[in-house]
Design brief:
single chain; six-stranded antiparallel sheet
């Protein structure tokens, strides 16, 4: 630095002068008696100059353009935390895992937020979280969340083992393989539920309206990354189902819509039922396909009340006649899309009230691979509504038939003549719905119920023994699921509304 260099040059000149003085003094040493005193003065002068030089250099470094490293002030708010850590580490009766203590402290901070959408994740949990968003994974295929201290199904993924087993939104997961989930967060629950393809997991499910929990055995499978499924309903109307908003969903949708246009698509029913949400940027990108350019898609409100508006980039055709299907399993990004097209493009919504998740999360990765997912903002509809815990009420409310909400039956349980249970009652309702009248639906397995089972088994080319168990139970649920699909009252109403918009 220039200041330091100047000081050094000055010191060298001063030293040279002093050396010349010393030489002169040595020449005159026989003439003077003050040599010892002048050497002392010279040493003290050198010490003073060095001290002065160091002081000026420090001043230059501190206030010049190049700063020295500063030490942050002590964080006194952490004193209690440090004291607790040291107390446990030094005084606990067994050796403790320090890393586990630190992770527990972080997890405790997150839990104190009382926010089901904020989580601290270990290395393994973080890996599982990233996989669920960006790639395929192995498990049962259901979005879950912590709600009022319980683990609740938000929505099963289309075609997943969870959907095939009959899991529904708002089903409460009581235990996994006999282990209670009481007190666990959603990330911990996911770790227990997921597992390798082909392995079996048994869930204890409490469904709203049911008196007792039901046992649901599920064989895990690979959950595919495909999120968009399209088909023509008739010569001019297409139906596209989006099962989640993952990293490639917008690209999948564009490809699907291009194929459907080649098949004659003039109007579209977009099905977001049972869609648990996903990535915000995908919701914005897809909304931009149907919302006119410049119109608001979603608003974000931070903790200071500052609102940021995200507008449509109009990447697609906002003039395509559109109707959107939603239900109680439509959450998060699904609700962002539904609200955007409803309020900024006048698109009607059909079905049932949505789930009601109105917050935005982000994730921070730590060096050790662990992860902190936390809520950063509220999201508001284009009209400024916050739908959190309220959901979106569709323009046309349509419920599915009662048999569409029947609980699953444990295929390992035998239902036979003279037995009586809630499972028998469910089986009787299923048989009646698919055209095999059991004569009663009160839960008592009588002779007429047995004859209905035999007729069903015969039609399905199964052993006709009049007992529901194993393959017979699974087939009964499969046939009912097919009937629900073919008698989809919500889809039928959506098509009716869409035809009115296409005239």
């Amino acid at each position: 630095m220039k200041v330091v260099k100047a000081l050094e040059e000055k010191n060298e000149e001063q030293l040279k002068v002093q050396e010349e003085k010393v030489e002169q003094e040595q020449v005159n040493q026989n003439k003077s008696g003050y040599i010892r005193l002048k050497k002392f003065h010279f040493i003290m002068l050198l010490f003073f100059l060095v001290f002065l030089s160091a002081g000026i250099t420090t001043f230059a470094l501190a206030f010049g353009k190049e700063k020295v490293v500063t030490v942050a002030p002590e964080r006194t708010e952490f004193n209690k935390l440090y004291e607790a850590f040291d107390t446990i580490k030094d005084g606990y009766y067994k050796d403790v895992d320090q890393k586990k203590l630190i992770n527990g402290a972080i997890d405790g901070m997150v839990q104190s937020l009382d926010d089901p959408y904020s989580d601290y994740m270990s290395n393994e949990e973080a890996k599982s979280f990233h996989n669920s968003i960006s790639s395929s994974f192995e498990g049962i295929g259901a979005e879950i969340q912590e709600k009022d201290g319980h683990i609740v199904i938000v929505s099963p993924i289309k075609g997943s083992p969870a959907e095939k087993a009959g899991l529904k939104p708002n089903d409460m997961v009581i235990s996994v393989n006999g282990k209670s989930l009481q007190g666990m967060n959603s990330t911990e629950a996911v770790t227990l539920i997921r597992g390798k393809k082909g392995t079996k997991v048994t869930l204890s499910i409490q469904r709203p309206g049911m008196n007792a929990p039901m046992t649901v055995p599920i064989v895990r499978d690979t959950i595919p990354i495909e999120t968009v499924y399209g088909e023509m309903v008739d010569d001019s109307i297409a139906k596209v189902q989006i099962t989640s908003f993952s990293s490639n969903t917008s690209k999948e949708l564009v490809s699907t819509l291009n194929d459907l246009q080649k098949k004659g698509m003039k109007g579209l029913v977009l099905d977001l039922r049972q869609n648990p949400g996903g990535l915000l940027d995908q919701a914005v990108s897809i909304s931009s396909m149907f919302v006119p350019k410049g119109k608001v898609i979603v608003k974000e409100e931070d903790k200071n009340g500052k609102i940021k508006e995200i507008a449509s980039q109009n990447e697609g055709d906002p003039d395509l006649p559109l109707v959107v299907l939603i239900d109680s399993g439509s959450a998060s990004a699904s609700e962002i899309f539904a609200a955007a097209v409803k309020e900024s493009a006048g698109v009607p919504l059909v079905g049932e009230k949505s789930f009601g998740k109105g917050t935005v999360q982000t994730a921070a990765d730590f060096e050790d691979g662990s992860n902190l997912k936390y809520t950063i903002a509220k999201w508001l509809t284009p009209n400024g509504n916050w739908i959190h815990k309220k959901g979106i009420v569709p323009d046309v409310v349509v419920k599915l038939p009662e048999y569409a909400t029947l609980p699953i039956i444990d295929p390992d349980k035998e239902l036979a003549l003279s037995t009586s249970s809630t499972e028998v009652q469910t089986a009787q309702k299923m048989l009646k719905a698919i055209g095999y009248d059991p004569g009663r639906v009160d839960g008592f397995f009588d002779e007429k119920t047995k004859q209905a089972v035999i007729k069903f088994q015969t039609a399905q080319k199964l052993p006709a023994n009049g007992v529901l168990k194993g393959d017979s139970t699974l087939k009964l649920m499969d046939v009912l699921r097919e009937k629900i699909k073919n008698s989809d009252t919500q889809l039928q109403k959506a098509v009716e509304v869409l035809k009115g918009r296409m005239k």
